[in-house]
Amino acid sequence: MIPAPTSTEKPHLLRLPNWLGDLILALPAVHLYQRWLNGRAPLLLVGPHSLAPLAPLLLPDLEYLPTRICPFAISATLRKRQVASAVLFPNSIRTALETFSVPYRAGFYEKLRNPLLTDHPPRRTSPFGYVHVADQYLGLLEDLGLPKAKAVLPSSPSTLPKPKDAPAQPYLAILPGAAYGPAKRWDPSSFASVIRDLQKSHSLTPVLLGGPGDVNDCRAVSEALGSPITDLSGTTTTLDLAHWLAHARLILCHDSGPMHLAAFLGKPAVAIFGSTEPAWTHPLGSSVTVVRHKVSCSPCFLKKCPIDRRCLIRLTPEEVLTACNLRLATT
Ligand code: SF4
Fold first, then answer.
1. Where are the alpha helices (DSSP H) in the chain?
2. What is the pLDDT of residues 67-93, one digit of tens each?
3. DSSP reduced 3-state for 316
4. pLDDT on residue 324
5. In a mutational test of the pocket of ligand 1, which residue from 185, 298, 312, 315 has the highest number of ligand atoms less than 8 Å from its CB?
């Protein structure tokens, strides 16, 4: 059980997940913890350096400590700060080392890591199927003594600045990358087909977005389209990306961090699933439509398909276009 706070000087810590999507799915748990503390102790969040620019947007008014390369450096900082307890959402040994100076350390059951923790309840399972990742995080806190709570995203800021280069006319934000691997990525020619149709039917200006690792995927879509398109992949920070998504008329993406960011922002989006399972990681809220073609081998959760990518190939541009049209008609 998480020890009750004894001093407003001694922070309680949550170690956030390292991926943007998982971090957004952890937000309901962060807010549960904040409510439980109710000002009796500060809540300190530790998370990846790469997501620090988004912390003021996703976690306003909370202290976010970015991880450094050496886990022992964080551990020394936590000792100085007299952190009272730490709950770890990632499964890694690294996060246990980061928090080893904290007297109470809890995380999901992981055989090799358990000796480094003081508490390690198992992940939630269900005889009826997958337990969503957001419910896994809430379930961990519940198992550690906090009250039960629903996986509801906190409200996002109502206005975010519009990027200065954003088109004046409504635009379609397309994110054809997926850091996880090619078993999540739809074909560039299929993206191009949907873009062409949405340009014609809704006069949407297409804009390609993505991080440095998505440059090749964006270039492939641009080449498949065969006509000029704004491609900002590799040039925007994660905070810029949030601003671009916040002003898009529609977002077309994969099961990825930007999909969860669109959900957090409450923006209309269509998200394509390949090897993964919506019941496990579907976006929270109701602004994102999930499209998938379930085949007998899905979900396999593989990064690279060992056969013919049939879960992605069999998802047609017409199906995705229908989902886009429905989303546009209802928002
Ligand atoms: S094995 Fe099946 S589910 Fe997995 S990526 Fe390949 S086609 Fe998709």
1. 20-25, 27-37, 55-58, 71-80, 93-98, 133-143, 188-202, 215-225, 238-246, 257-265, 278-281, 310-313, 317-330
2. 977 888 899 999 999 999 999 999 999
3. coil
4. 98
5. 298
Ligand 1 centroid, distance to 325 Cα (angstroms)? 27
Instruction: State the CB neighbour count (10 A cutoff) for residue 141.
Output: 24
Q: Nearest C-alpha to atom 3 of ligand 1 is from which residue?
A: 298
- pTM recorded for the entire structure: 0.95
Token pair recorded at residue 162 = 């519009």
Q: What confidence score (pLDDT) does residue 185 get?
A: 96
Parts of the chain belonging to CATH 3.40.50.2000 = 12-143, 171-330
**CATH class of the domain comprising 171-330:** alpha beta
Pick the closest to residue 283 from 160, 151, 183, 125 (CA basis): 151
Alpha-carbon distance 212 to 21, whole Å? 17
CATH (residue range 12-143): 3.40.50.2000
Amino acid at 190: S
